[in-house]
């Protein structure tokens, strides 16, 4: 298969730049503590300086993999499938989610929301970033809003983002791991003063699992 043919298949969502896939415990947000199979798709140009998977940014480093193979592997392990990145919405997620739904899977996505929302999702975790804000559609459809807190100003950003999501969206503040000792007290005080928010912790890191 030529490079051009592969690029066309990726464009159509028939292949995706797969960085890694693994079965583990969801560590964050509403579904924390539950078993799930993660599909990490390469490619992201949002560019968060504190990103803990910067190796996902360059899609060229991750082999285009047949979407059918990704799905057949995933459903061997779990009916809860979390698609993450990188930024998965860099790519067309329509075929991936169609195939997963055909296998009876629950489809979850973790996204910055910066690109067009493609695919059919049972759960959308929106984690907006200042450099590229989410689309109007993903604000309207998000099931949970998860704002990463790196400094005090991020709390203001969180309030701005909360004003844009739908009324049923669950609101989470999550300390950025490298500065958690500094920002956890800020988050605790904020949530106590604003109880519509909840705290999300990266419990998988405390459990020392992927």
Give an overview of the whole structure.
- Its cofactor is S-adenosyl-L-methionine; Mg(2+); [4Fe-4S] cluster.
- S-adenosyl-L-methionine binds at residues 50-52, 86, 127-129.
- [4Fe-4S] cluster binds at residues 44, 48, 51.
- Belongs to the radical SAM superfamily. 7-carboxy-7-deazaguanine synthase family.
- Its EC number is 4.3.99.3.
- The protein has a nine-stranded mixed sheet.
- α6 (180-193) links the parallel β8 and β9.
- α2 (67-74) runs parallel beside α3.
- It has helices at 3-11, 67-74, 94-102, 136-141, 153-162, 180-193, 203-206, and strands spanning 15-25, 35-41, 64-66, 80-85, 106-111, 123-126, 144-149, 170-175, 197-199.
- It has one domain: Alpha-Beta Barrel (TIM Barrel).
- With 210 residues, it is of the alpha/beta class.
- Helices cover 29% and strands 25% of the residues.
- The model has no long low-confidence stretch (mean pLDDT 96).
- It is built from seven helices and nine strands, in the order αβββαβαββαβαβαβα.
- The longest helix is centred in the C-terminal third of the chain and has 14 residues, at 180-193.
